[in-house]
Structures are given as C-alpha cells and as structure tokens.
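Researcher: I'd like a candidate sequence for this fold, 213 residues long. If you have to choose between options at a position, lean toward the conservative one.
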C-alpha cells in the first residue's frame, strides 16, 4: 500500500519470473491542483491498481512486467517546480526502469491525468508507446514528445470530467509526429471506467502488448 511519506514517489511492482520482455508503467489520475500526498484511499490510485490487477495475467503470459506508480502529490500542479508534479514522478520511474531493466521497452498506460502525464514523458528513450484512457488533454496540449512513438487513446462519449472531443483533436495533431495515433470511441460510458469494464481492460492490455512488439 502507499506510504504516507510524500517526499518520494513509489512503485508497486508485478514482476514476471526472469528477465521481462517489456514493461507497462501504469500512471493513475489526479486533479488539477493538490499538494496532499496520494494515500491508500485515493480513488484514482485504487482505480489504477484494480485495472493493473485485472490485466496482469495477460501481461505476464506475454513476459511483460507491470509497475504502478504512486505520485507524491495528488495534483498536476503546473507552475509548482520545473515540471508538473506527476511528470517529475514519471520521469523518476522511467529512470528507475532504464537503470534496472536496461534495454527493456516501456509502454505508459495512463488514466485521466495519467494519460496527460504519459504524453508528456513519452520522449524518454525507453518508451515505445502510450495508452491513454479517458485522458485529460487540454486544448493545445503539446504532442512533440510522441515523435516516433505509438499512441492509442480510448474515451467515452458520456465523460463529463475530461473531453473526448479534445482527445480526438490531440490524436489528429499527434498523427503528424507519432509512429501511429488512434482514437477509440468507447461509446456511451463515462470517465471512471465503471461501465464497460472488460472493454476498457481489453483496450489497455491489447494496445500495451501491441506497442511492445
């Protein structure tokens, strides 16, 4: 479970036996502002943890490990420090992956704010692609970090928290720089992935394994 110490991020690891063929780094959601630590009752962290548990079987059968990152702070917190809070934490996790799993490709799997975080750190040399679920992608969000990387986004049409229209617009712009870019319409479902759970899980693991090939 997450510690109460917000001074460092934390990784919950689901490792395969032996050397992994790839790594899925799971990035949970959050809020625009918030310097409180991510605790064990955080809905965003628990949602990502539950999804991670649901897709671990398929990932492990493919020889792929999963790491779930716990951010230090709940918020994006733009303007507080050199980079938004979860971006700094995701870069730390990727540095850890490159140090411990040299040469192993990484796919970033992010929900909501985690999708935005994933798109921001996709320029890391270890990253092969990004899978974004109901991502928070404000108008004009930069796509440059996706150059040469694969990008797949899934969004429900009843999402009232983040915008499927803006995700579609982001995907259109990413097409110019990414190795591939896809928008997947999840239909009449909302933000928290409480409806159509098997379809969310299938998109998450299907694209993650595809991008690691």
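Model: Candidate sequence:
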């Amino acid at each position: 479970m997450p510690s109460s110490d917000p001074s460092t991020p934390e990784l919950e690891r689901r490792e395969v036996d032996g050397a992994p063929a790839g790594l899925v780094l799971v990035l949970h959601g959050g809020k625009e502002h918030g310097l409180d630590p991510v605790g064990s009752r955080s809905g965003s962290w628990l949602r990502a943890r539950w999804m991670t548990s649901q897709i671990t079987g398929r990932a492990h059968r493919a020889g792929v490990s999963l790491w779930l990152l716990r951010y230090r702070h709940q918020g994006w917190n733009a303007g507080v420090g050199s980079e938004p809070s979860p971006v700094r934490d995701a870069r730390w996790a990727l540095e850890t992956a490159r140090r411990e799993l040299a040469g192993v490709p990484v796919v970033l799997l992010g929900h909501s704010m985690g999708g935005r975080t994933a798109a921001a750190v996709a320029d890391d040399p270890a990253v092969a692609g990004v899978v974004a679920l109901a991502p928070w992608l404000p108008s004009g969000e930069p796509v440059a970090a996706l150059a040469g990387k694969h990008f797949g986004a899934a969004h429900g049409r009843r999402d009232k928290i983040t915008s499927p229209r803006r995700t579609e617009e982001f995907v259109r712009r990413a097409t110019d720089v990414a190795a591939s870019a896809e928008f997947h319409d999840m239909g009449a479902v909302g933000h928290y992935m409480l409806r159509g759970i098997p379809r969310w899980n299938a998109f998450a693991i299907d694209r993650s394994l595809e991008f690691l090939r």
